[in-house]
Specification:
Length: 333
């Protein structure tokens, strides 16, 4: 680790990120069309989503392939939303900006609405690593119990219900119904369908029974949605939640250097696939929040060594044993 002060190390990393981005933009002038690039990515993602769902509906592709493809496509939609939260696209054209926000929410309906998430995400950047970071705590950060963490990572609504009392005591201005209502109507409908299907098959296993005609039709719709929307987003969100809750520190954090570590471990590669390489690139976002996700991807290979040189830890998976606490005597891998 460098002997520089924390601020000097942070400035060195930020300078390297900005220099690499400037170099990339100079080599590829098309990158100046930031709004247009984002819209093309959104429309391609949405078209791919609809196309894959259609192929499954007409029985051209099997359910497992549909699930994998949609999970990957929706991970791109998540990256777009992340950028939209920082108003990187069409910030001066609110109709188009909000249209994009709506589309990425429709593609990922197991999340709170992006307008509310913007509030908690920007707050996350201010209080990352502390008990006040609602966004990360909602997805499992700071939980020591492996079982409870697994529940929260896999089911955001159940995690909210389980942790509501604790959040009320520890997080200033936390209101359960404010978070819950931010999921209405998409997230609430999503989880209602998911849990109804689970309950139905559990009951069928315990004591088989026949559904009326209208019930059969409803089940067919629910099963279709499970394949083209619900299960893919379980895979996507579980992958993202696992990685983000593992790489963000909780407690002992004093500056940006200590907010996250970079995850490159091969054990996380299957999960990286469904959250667009989040573990290897997200730390860059903490140093340069207002940067498109595709820029972050393109410069990450050159920036990771710089971050390592200036004190950012890599694969500090031991922190999971301490509920993500940043410990001074832990060395980077």
């Amino acid at each position: 680790m460098s002997k520089l002060t924390a601020n000097q190390n942070i400035n060195a990393i930020v300078t390297a990120i900005k220099a690499e981005e400037a170099s990339l933009r100079a080599r590829y002038p098309i990158l100046k069309w930031q709004n247009g690039i984002a819209m093309v990515i959104l429309l391609l993602s949405l078209s791919s989503f609809i196309g894959v769902a259609t192929l499954y509906y007409v029985a051209v592709i099997p359910a497992w392939l549909c699930i994998i493809l949609v999970a990957f496509v929706t991970s791109i939609a998540h990256e777009l939303e992340h950028d939209l939260l920082h108003k990187q696209y069409f910030s001066k054209r609110p109709f188009i900006h909000n249209f994009m926000m709506l589309i990425v929410w429709l593609m990922r309906p197991n999340t709170v609405n992006p307008w509310y998430r913007r509030q908690i995400h920007l707050h996350h950047h201010k209080v990352s690593g502390t008990s006040q970071d609602l966004e990360e705590r909602l997805v499992g950060n700071g939980i020591k119990s492996p079982f409870l963490r697994a529940v929260v990572v896999a089911d955001g609504l159940l995690g909210l219900l389980i942790n509501s009392k604790r959040f009320s005591e520890e997080i200033r201005d936390f209101k359960f119904f404010q978070v819950f209502n931010a999921g209405v109507p998409l997230a609430t409908t999503y989880f209602a369908i998911l849990h109804c299907v689970i309950v139905y098959y559990v009951l069928q296993f315990v004591h088989p029974f026949e559904l009326p005609a209208w019930g059969v039709e409803l089940l067919a719709v629910a099963e279709f949605l499970m394949v083209v929307l619900i299960v893919p987003n379980i895979i996507r969100s579980t992958s993202l939640n696992l990685i983000t809750s593992s790489m963000h520190y909780y407690g002992g954090v004093n500056n940006v250097l200590e907010q996250t570590h970079v995850i490159t471990s091969r054990w996380f590669l299957p999960f990286q696939l469904f959250c667009f390489d989040f573990g290897r690139t997200h730390t860059i976002h903490h140093f340069a929040p207002n940067q498109p996700f595709y820029i972050r991807q393109l410069i990450s290979q050159k920036i990771r060594p710089v971050m390592a040189q200036h004190g950012v830890r890599f694969d500090d998976l031991q922190s999971l044993k301490h509920a993500n606490q940043y410990l001074e005597n832990e060395s980077s891998s």
